[in-house]
Design goal:
homodimer, 381 residues, Rossmann fold, seven-stranded parallel β-sheet, 12 helices, 14 strands, globular
Chain lengths: 381, 381
């Protein structure tokens, strides 16, 4: 297939582009490389030293003989986006190209407005460009499990069968997102659902859990192909951040009570889920939602796992509970369906000690690059 | 109370500002007057000849002795908005200042993006300005019944008690809006709900039905105070548009089968509902939703009423069914709760023949101003 990966320079996008290229697909990347600018804005960095996008795709070509075309620009620039679509005529548009940090969106009004405009307008432009240029193209959009929030009922995959006053309907699952970023994803979901209903677009919305790990078979082929790994209080996510804290002798910092429970998945499952969605496209007019995660953990679960694996490797780390910088329930019911991707062939790579050890060893390898002042959260809700 | 009316030059905003001023409140208007520019963009006009905002408030002052301060500018300009809030320190922020036409939002990509950015960023700025400058201020936000779409169950006022797999929760009512404009209102609702939960803001979201009529006691005091009345295919809404069609000898044009059913209310109830909400503010942290309409009608019901009243006044009009320019169900279940405003004291002004006749007589008075080429719908979904 001819696949365009928007945001293909990022943490999920880069390994997805490599994996799909390795599977024999014709892959192009469109990315404005703004994630690298945010490192500069925040005085932060990737734990791993990442090459430029040009260096990355050139090395990929040298090693595998496969070409990944690149287009540098902004999805919010419709002239640019429509030109890219006309040049590539994708069968599948994989859309990772959004500002994806909740704390970044909560820094202040400017960052909230930027996040919502960037994400919503970028996705609106994708909708219109696909509608006008490649109406058969299957849009695979990265959503987030965070769209649902933490309702006191089971979370279903996108839709809920509701019985009310003697009548019945299947309705979009109610959304209670917890940050300006998560709200932007909810807005996208509503816009995409409308586009499917009204214009017959075909969309798979992947409500992804928290991703851990950094390597895939492809990124391990060469140091120039290494993926980025975030550990700072803005872009770092729970498990990766805990392992890095343990490696540098920092306390493992749980926000609040630590009973916050979420869905998690290994990055190697992320890339596989994209392939599964691409191989099994949504129908015309169908807005399809998959919950993309493999296991549920509380933050306390993850802190304990990180502590244990570090200890096995000879690193002692305390677990401390910080005042929660976020407004969220710290003890709550959480149970979310996630069978649709498994039904289509996903074999989950679970969070075993081996997996934890492999991440930890990479972390130790690069720990001299950690900027200690960035590890603690500075942004409050 | 000290009340700031955003969008106070518009169809609902202007009579609301006058009514609240007449009730003794200290009223200010903030408006960028862009609605008047859209008339120019579309080559359209108000059926009634409307004065400038300065002429309007000056005449109001002359007649009643009451001052309405005005600020001309854009809610999307945060420096401007925060300056207005600092100057006025409102107890109540009434927010009408959005692009409110579904067809306008569906003209093309540019108008869709404009509508969503304008409405979402304007409301985000209101959220941040209130949070930072007047955190006790009660935000009264105009939403729309169109946020709900047409589910096959009863529509409740904002929230739904859900029982699922043996558990229970009260969740936001699922939203299935039918245009890029209606989507922008859904985005606003999610953003506002979050702001209440996280920052303790106090918000009443008025999901308003389709408004008919144009006069209030205050706008009738002087011709310079007359309200605007839209009849074109972009900004005109069902009942008002039908009466104007009948008055100029045009067919009454029903879109599709005409079974589309919606909630409706008289403009004189709109202004009263704002007062009721203001007098009974939401609590800190409360996101409160009222469904603001008084009666349900199908489009066919309204066409028949318009035809009959026109006939009584000596005007013959045929009812014709056009191919529906919108994507919507033309026969569907519709039943929506609307008791909360009544419980707080609303006495509905229903759609009687007298009410219809009064509107029709105004329409006849100004019918020479109708631009016939604007009456039919030109924008398709």
């Amino acid at each position: 297939m001819n696949i365009l990966v928007a945001g293909g320079d990022g943490f999920c996008g880069w390994p997805t582009a490599l994996y799909l290229s390795n599977q024999g697909h014709e892959v192009s990347i469109v990315d404005k490389l703004i994630r690298r600018n945010w490192d500069e804005e925040l005085g932060s960095n990737s734990l791993t030293p990442i090459a430029t996008l040009d260096e990355r795709v050139n090395r990929w070509k040298t090693i595998t003989g496969k070409t990944i075309r690149t287009f540098q620009g902004d999805l919010c620039d419709y002239a640019f986006l429509s030109d890219v679509i006309k040049q590539t005529l994708p069968d599948v548009f994989v859309h990772f190209a959004e500002q994806r940090s909740a704390p970044y969106s909560m820094m202040d009004r400017e960052h909230a407005v930027f996040t919502q405009v960037n994400n919503v307008v970028g996705t609106l432009n994708v909708i219109y460009a696909v509608k006008e240029i490649v109406p058969d193209c299957h849009i695979i959009k990265l959503g987030t499990m965070g769209e649902y929030g933490t309702p006191n009922i089971d979370i279903e995959e996108g839709f809920l069968n509701v019985r009310h006053n003697g009548r019945e309907d299947v309705l979009p699952f109610p959304k209670q997102p917890g940050s300006m970023y998560h709200l932007s994803k909810v807005h996208d979901s509503h816009n995409l659902m409308f586009a499917c209903r009204v214009w017959g677009l075909r969309v798979t919305d992947l409500n992804q859990g928290v991703v851990y790990g950094l390597h895939t078979n492809e990124t391990l082929l060469d140091p120039i192909l290494v993926n980025r790994l975030d550990y700072d209080g803005v872009f770092g996510t729970a498990l990766n951040r805990f392992l890095i804290q343990a490696a540098i002798g920092h306390d493992i910092t749980v926000y609040g009570e630590g009973g916050q429970t979420r869905g998690f998945l290994n990055l190697v499952d992320t890339v596989r889920c994209i392939e599964i969605a691409a191989n099994n496209p949504a129908d015309h007019g169908e807005f399809r939602v998959f919950n993309q995660f493999t296991e549920e953990f509380s933050v306390n679960d993850l802190a304990a796992k990180a502590q244990k694996i570090a200890q096995n490797e000879g690193y002692e780390a305390n677990i401390v509970h910080l005042e929660n910088p976020r407004v969220e329930k710290e003890q709550h019911y959480y149970h979310a369906a996630h069978t649709k991707l498994v039904d289509l062939g996903l074999s989950p790579n679970l969070l075993t000690d081996d997996v934890l050890r492999t991440i930890f060893q990479t972390v130790v390898q690069f720990k001299s690059r950690v900027l200690h002042q960035n590890v603690l959260p500075k942004i409050k809700w």
